[in-house]
Amino acid sequence: HFPLLYCGGAVKDLRPDVSDQELFWGTDQYDFAIVLPASGLECFWHFAHQGERFYLDFMVQWVTGVANDRHLSVTVNAPSGLIVGSADDAKGQIAFNAGETGFYQMCFSNFHNRFGSMQIFLNFGVYYEDSDDVKNQKEEEEIKKEQDRKHLNDTLTTIEESSSRVQGFVFHMWRYYNFERMRRGADYYLLQSNSNYVSTWSVVQSFVIIMAGYLQLFFLKKLFDTKTTTETDKPRC
């Protein structure tokens, strides 16, 4: 369970009026679903360091109400308040390199639907990617490490590099798996909605056919003038 956050401006430093449990920290990755009411707005904050890769995947799973629209308006603001990413679609991805350290604000608006709510699935987080600053920092760290581990076997270095690459590949596979899970969830809700729609209209059409047959029989009987016969009053040719 993830608590809902207060809507408002992006912050660069920790807000004194917001507890740690209401903010998403560090390089953790999160995936969960929320329900936005009609014309609703929901905002979350995630902390990122300069040079980290920030990503956000979203997908609308189901929509209710009259004249519903599956479009979702999404904006991502930097700690300084500038918009660094936006989208207006039923699903999408926003990714960028964090240019400053602080809390990045993600806002999701359902203003397209004034009479219906929607459920959306979110997957967001940050990770390191080889940018110029990060690469230079890693090169300096590697030089220091080489001086400290001259006596170590080269096999350990190879294992470490291979483990880092495998960890990166596993992380991206996990992202693709999460996005596929979002798509399968949306397909399930769509099939369920279509099944309810077909069942409802089948019952309505069956009722209309039965009533139409009954009315036809009723009007046909009205075309014939029938009289009751007795012993004294019998039908004549």
Automatic annotation (TrEMBL):
Q: Which GO terms describe its cellular component?
A: endoplasmic reticulum membrane
Where's it found, cell-wise?
Answer: Endoplasmic reticulum membrane; Membrane
Q: Which InterPro entries match?
A: Emp24-like, GOLD_dom
Give the record's keywords alphabetically.
Endoplasmic reticulum, Membrane, Signal, Transmembrane, Transmembrane helix
User: Would I find DNA damage among this entry's keywords?
Assistant: no
Superkingdom field: Eukaryota
Span-the-membrane segments of this chain are 201-220
Q: Which parts of the sequence belong to the GOLD domain?
A: 41-126
> How is this protein positioned relative to the membrane?
Single-pass type I membrane protein
Principal localization?
endoplasmic reticulum
Tell me the protein family, please. Answer: Belongs to the EMP24/GP25L family.
Please state what the protein is called.
GOLD domain-containing protein
* The organism of origin for this protein: Pygocentrus nattereri (Red-bellied piranha)
